[in-house]
């Protein structure tokens, strides 16, 4: 039975409530692979809960409803979406900005990742 939008919203809300660091992820998404590589570089990948939306086929109700639930939680359309303490904080663009400004390590400290 397909996941309804109401179910997806509840599951996403629970995921964000019960996990300090969450990333909406798809293994086929190069931007998701990039953010994971940054988490690995700083040895914090085990602190992040990844919701693998890529296991659902695009266009299916499961994919669309989970994706919409995450978009609503972040008020942003993107992959990846990164949350801390239930609040949207970053995309891969944010990570690039932090790297370019040489503040990524400090940002991770500020978020409690380091």
List key phrases describing it.
4 strands, Glutaredoxin-8, alpha+beta, Glutaredoxin, about 15% strand, Thioredoxin-like_sf, about 110 residues, single chain
Uncertain stretches of 5 or more adjacent residues: none
Strand content: 15-25%
Q: What's the domain count?
A: 1
Q: What is the CATH-assigned architecture?
A: 3-Layer(aba) Sandwich
What is the assigned CATH homologous superfamily?
Glutaredoxin
Could you give the order of strands across the largest sheet?
Answer: 2-1-3-4
Total helix count?
5
Global structural class: alpha+beta
Shape: globular
Mean model confidence by pLDDT:
97
CATH class: Alpha Beta
List the secondary-structure elements in sequence, H or E: HEHEHEEHH
Largest sheet: 4 strands, mixed
**Compute the gyration radius: what is it?**
14 Å
Distance linking N and C termini = 40 Å
Oligomer: single chain
Number of E-state strands: 4
Instruction: Provide the helix percentage.
Output: 40-55%
CATH topology value? Glutaredoxin
Protein name: Glutaredoxin-8
Organism: Hanseniaspora uvarum (Yeast)
